[in-house]
Structure formats: C-alpha cells, structure tokens
Amino acid sequence: xxxxxLYNPGxxxxxxxxxxxxxQKRLAFSLKASNFVDDDDSDDDSTxxxxxxxxxxAMDEDDEDHSVDSEDGDFxxxxxxxxxxxxxxxxxxxxxxxxxxxxxxxxxSESSDSEExxxxxxxxxxxxxxxxxxxxxxxxxxxxTKPAKTKKLVEESSDDESSSSSDSSEDESDDADSGFKxxxxxxxxxxxxxxxxxxxxxxxxxxxxxxxxETPETSADFExxxxxxxxxxxxxxxxxxxxxxxxxIDSARNxxxxxxxxxxxxxxxxxxxxxxxLLTLELKYGTGKSLYETVDRASSTNxxxxxxxxxxxxxxxxxxxxxxxxxSSDLNAATKRADDMFTKMCKKFKSxxxxxxxxxxxxxxxxxxxxxxxxxxxxxxxxxxxxxxxxMSKFAQMEFELGSPxxxxxxxxxxxxxxxKRMDLLFVNIDxxxxxxxMAKARALFDSVVNPVSHDRKQFKxxxxxxKSLFKKWYRMEEDHGDSESQxxxxxxxxxxxxxxSQ
Length: 503
What we know:
Elements: E1 16-21, E2 26-30, H1 43-55, H2 61-66, H3 75-85, H4 93-102, H5 109-121, H6 148-209, H7 219-228, H8 233-245, H9 249-262, H10 268-285, H11 288-301, H12 304-324, H13 328-348, H14 353-365, H15 369-382, H16 388-402, H17 405-418, H18 423-436, H19 439-450, H20 464-481, H21 484-502
Antiparallel strand pairs: 1-2
Helix pairs in contact: 7-8, 8-9, 8-10, 9-10, 10-11, 10-12, 11-12, 12-13, 13-14, 14-15, 14-16, 16-17, 16-18, 17-18, 18-19, 19-20, 20-21
C-alpha cells in the first residue's frame, strides 16, 4: 500500500524501526499492529500522564511552550529547530522528582530501573545542547552516554560471564568427548545394520531370480539344494567343501553320511562320487586307520574294484604332489602307502586287467621300468589268455608315453606278428609313432601293409573295406604332417591297389 494515501504530514503514528542506514539517511520501519500487542503504552496512560504533568505547580507556560516531550512522535524535528534557534533545553529536576513521586509505589523494580536509565540518558541540568550534532540518527541509547557505574557493572557481569563460560566449556568438552564416543558407536551400529539389510536384500533378490541356487553361500542354501535334488552328488560334494572351507571336518563327514542315506540305491555312480570325496577327505585330514576303515565301508556298499581304483588314483596324485614339493620324508611315506595299496588291489583283483594297467601306469610314471616289466610278466600269468593282447597293447602305449618308444615298438611288432588281422593294433601303433614325431616309421608301417616285402611276417590279405579305411587314414596323416608330394603318392598307391583288386 502507498503510505501517502493513509497518512498526512504531521500525523502522530506509532511504529517500530527495523533498520537504519546512516550514510543514505534512510529508515526501514513497520506499522503492523501485531508489533504492539504487548505494549503497555496506551492512549489512556498518555492522557493520565499529561494530566498529572499539567497539575504540577513547578511548570509555567513559557516552560511548557519550550519543553520537548521525549515521547512525541515529532521529537527529532522539534529538537533540531530548537538547536538551530540557539535555545537551551533544561530539564527540571523538580518535575522529574514530582513525576517519580507521583508514580505508583507498588510498581516493580524493573519499571523503576527503566525510569532511572531514561533519566540518566537525558542531559543534565545546566548543560547546553549546542555541541550536539543535528544528525543524531535516532540513536538515543548509545553506549557512550552510559555512566561509569553502568560500565563497571557491565565489566563485572562480563567477567562473571567469562568465568562461567570457561567452567561450562570444560564441562562441554567432557560432554563432547563422551558424546563423540557414543555417536561413534551409534554410527558403527547404524553401518552394521545397513550392511545387514543390504545383504538381506541381495539374498532375497538372488532367491527371487534363481541365482542363489547357482552360487550357494550359506548352509541354508545348501539345505534347500539337497532337499530339491537329493540324488545329485555334485551338490553333496559342494556342501562338504563348504564345511571344509570353514575347517569343520566333522560336519563334512556328517554331510557325506547323510548323502549315502538320501541318494537312491539305483544311483550307484552318484554314491561312488560321494564316497570318493569322503576318501579324499580322510586321506588329507584323517589318519591311516580312518582311511582304511572308509575303504572297507565303501567296498561293502559299492563295486569294490572301482573303490580301490579310486583310492589308488588318489594315492598316485598324493605321490606326485609330494614329489613336486621336494620333501624326501613325505615322498617316501606317500610312495610306501601307494605301493601297499596297489599291491593289495592287484592281489585282490588279479583277474581284472584294469587294476594291472593302473599299476603299470603308476610304476612307469615313477620311472620304475624294471618293476613295471616284472609286473607285466606277473599279470600275464594271472590274467586269462584273451586279455593278454589288450594288456600288452596298453603297456606298449605307456612305453611310448612314459618309457622308451623303442620298447613300445618291439611289443607292437610282436603283437602284429602274432595277430596280423588286428587292424586296430596297426592303427594304434601308427598313432603312437605320429605322436612321437617319427613320420618315417609311420609311413613304413603303411608300406608294410600295402607293399609287403618282409618274409618274416605272415602274409594276410585285407579286405577292400579294410584297405579303404587304411588309405583314408594314410591320406589324412599326410594332409596333417606331409606335403603335396606325399599326398600324391598315397593317391597313386590307392589307384594301383584298385587296379590290382579289379583284375
């Protein structure tokens, strides 16, 4: 609203000063009625005070004309005019005394203190206001006009406040330390709770989208998996590995025993896998006695030959690990235990070629060739005759891989001389020669069949179907390891054989 429309120059108004800018000579004020709700100064009080002042016998007309009411709203303009005219302004102490005596004797101490402060701030009797500046800036309560007594009281109060603040600062420092510790603990608890909530939400999301079954992390996850798929040996073995990662060997054993009860009796392969895991656990964390007891238990509920083959395989790996660790004492102990188990297996299943072949491989891998050849003779005495060819063929292949290729060739030549119809033995011999890198020996074997020149080997005419497979194998070998000239030679030999067979 425009204030000029509400008031005219010279009107008396009550306002509150909000801000004053001396340099720009501007004031910011408010006329809201809500600012004066608790104001004791009312029109009735002003009327009564003016009536008491008019009835005092110490005032005359001339003084009334030249007196200045400090509560007048136009006080600043009147004061400036009087100072320009050079008139002094005296304050009648008698009138002040009469005013103070006429005041209510039952008023509280705060009102009397406020009146004393106002009387002290007024100029003393006989002092002239000529030295005052006209631009007073409405700052009527400046600290420079306070008497020395007030300054002293202010200083004493400031000293008391400083001393009390120092004491309170010490208390606050102690409270701050305890408060910091408590807040630190609270933050740690909040962080732990937040992490727990995040982990819970992550697990719930994994359960919802099905990824929790792919990567189980807790016992509850594994229990849910084994309940949904009790015949899976993979799940049971992972559950055992989970307990082993927590160094809980007894719990891993208990999981294996539960698996034997839960897996159906028809699932022999699945049960054997769990037994193998339990044997591995006993071999690594158990004793010799517990290992043999577990072997006996497994043999009573599974195929005993397969159980011993698994145990011997584990012991063979243990020997390799001890050899790589270069520990003589551990190597000797592991070797002795493996030898005893292989010997026991061969005695127990001497009519089974697979146990003898496993023992051959174990000895040749350890560069124990003489023991391996002696064992071959023993195996041929124990095995039936129809198994001799396969056992000798396996031994010859192991010689190519782990022993001497020359000894392997000797064994294959003996087998081919005795069994010339066995095309499979020829192909195995050629494959081993190619794998060893001797291509001349491999080509010589093909030539010995296509163009036989040796009178020592029994002559045998292979069928057209067998010869076709032989030429195909020869050509594939030349494609992989030969050149165009060798490939043309194979084609030429095939054309010659076809022309001869067609005649």
